[in-house]
Prior knowledge:
Helix content: 55-70%
CATH topology of the domain at 13-406: Sodium/glucose cotransporter
CATH class of the domain at 13-406: Mainly Alpha
CATH architecture of the domain at 13-406: Up-down Bundle
Radius of gyration: 27 Å
Distance between the termini: 73 Å
Number of strands: 5
Number of helices: 27
Largest sheet: 5 strands, antiparallel
Amino acid sequence: MADEKLFSFQTGKVAHFTVVDYVLFGLLLVISAGIGLFFAIKDRKHNNTKTFLMAGGNMNPFPVALSLLASFMSAITLLGTPAEMYNYTTMYYWIGLSYFFVAFGAAHVFMPIFYQLRVRSAYEYLEHRFSKGVRTAGSMTFCVQMLLYMALVLYAPSLALNSVTGFTLWGSVISVGIVCTIYTTIGGMKAVLFTDSFQVGMMFAGLIAILIQGNVELGGFDQAWKKAEESGRVYFTDFNPDPKVRHSVWSLVIGGAFTWVAIYGVNQAQVQRYCTCPSLRKAQLAIWINFPGLCLILYLSCLIGMVVYAFYSNCDPFTFNLVKTSDQLLPLFVMDVLGYLKGFPGLFVACLFSGALSTISSGLSALAAVVLEDVIKAYFFKDLSENAATNTSKVLAFVFGIICLGLTYVASLLGGVLQAALSLFGMIGGPLLGLFILGMMFPWSNKWGAYCGLFLGLIFMFWIGVGAQIYKPYNPKAPTGISGCNWNLTTTLSPATVSLLNKTLSNAATTTSSYFNTTELISPVEEEENIFAPLYALSYLWYSATAVLFVVVVGLLVSLVTGPEDPKKLDPKLICPLFDILFPYLPEKIRKPMRFGVRFDELDKESKEGGVFGDLNTDILNLEMDVNSKEKEKEIHNNGLVHIENGKAPTENGCQNGGYVDNENKLLTRL
Length: 671
């Protein structure tokens, strides 16, 4: 029968995609490219960097929130999180708590500083605070991080699908890479934001369909939970403070917060997105709308992982080479439970590659902005016209897209996608986060401390990361079984081998309690062979926090030796008043010493709203006041708006008596 369910453990073979599935995948690419083409045509008269890189600065918080969500909740999350549930325990659920602290830190600690400076590149801050050289070092570090991450995001799902479903490897890599590059190049930030919104919808649709059908096959989620409990996977109480424990409450909540705040707080891809909102309040709203979306994708993926384990609990697909890596588990499951329904595997592919498309497009746009602002304008063409700058941005986005395609081979060497991605954020994003924290929260730090902190931090973290690949720590996986595999399949192994496998797996299941509470993550032999083995065993979730601590300590020590900055002489806009943000209700006599002499009181008090930062909630692009003028509208290439100035020609920076108006002759802002 056409709709007969032949699972892989019954046949030993994996189902392949049909024509309908390929058509659905093609539709995803066509719709994404179509959105880019639509905005390229719609905004063709506004050929300026404000429109191309910042979406005009007047975006609604909702699509911005969806884009923030899509940017780093990629195919890596969709593949890696279910595999985490299958291979280990439910401890990973705890990372959802870290998202709350990430949202708070991004919205109320880092964002106000970037927003107050009106930056297009997050690394402009580093020039204001330290020097142009520090700015360049930070932006180049970001470029390396994003190029490697985008290559991983593009290659990993393609490889997983190719291995399990026969979906063409290089066909998917090249088609996704090219389509993503094209719509980002021609459509700019608006195309990125709206395609991200569409792609988030596809991600949710795919995840929900997989979860529902999986539960139908099992007879309800309670059955999946029961099997997970029996195997010892339901485990939430590892409070071991040892940083070598791969997943403890502390590493997931605290370490996870540092890992993700490096993304949401100071990563250009995210800073660029929330700066497309017209006010600080709306930008903060976008981040808080994004927070439940992060949790929803995380927990849907976790629940799917538990269903995947329950489905294969008595027939481990690794044992019989149905899959070779953890990243292939979810595609195998989809082909098993949805493969008989034509089109549903295609929906899964669309879901998976929606995550890849959104991440790559965000990265390309961010890379174009960083190189334009931090390299080309900063060093070569300071007076670059808006038309030339916009065209340069488009060329940069295209070039980086091609480079990303070329780096896909490197991504194949990084192992499991979830841990590899988060390790990469810790090894490179961690020192960058440390650099921003050094500047924003420690007013005594200087440029020499910034240089030494960043470079030594990168060296230190790569030493740990590379060492962890050479001296792999012992991270025991949860037990699996093969007792329910089809007899014809198991006869491909000798009876003695099958018996031994069953006995071994059965013994592992009986020792689950001690198995998961072990703190011995490296064998004594390894410790004797390499004295640094305990350092290499550091949980990847602590990478970012370790990097921040290292950069701050080194940066402060070097700053003190070379001559610390005087906090009284610093621009207060460059320093974060952390204690005022965290403890706004404490008496002034307690909070004042915690400002360390920084002149926050000189900020415009009229623009404050319950804190030391300006309100910035005035929507400067939506102050609609009618204005009568007989002058012909004149465009200013700096921002694509129209300026009226009492009969005088408009200037790039505006004028004292004039104002910017839209095409309907309504005043947008008066200078």
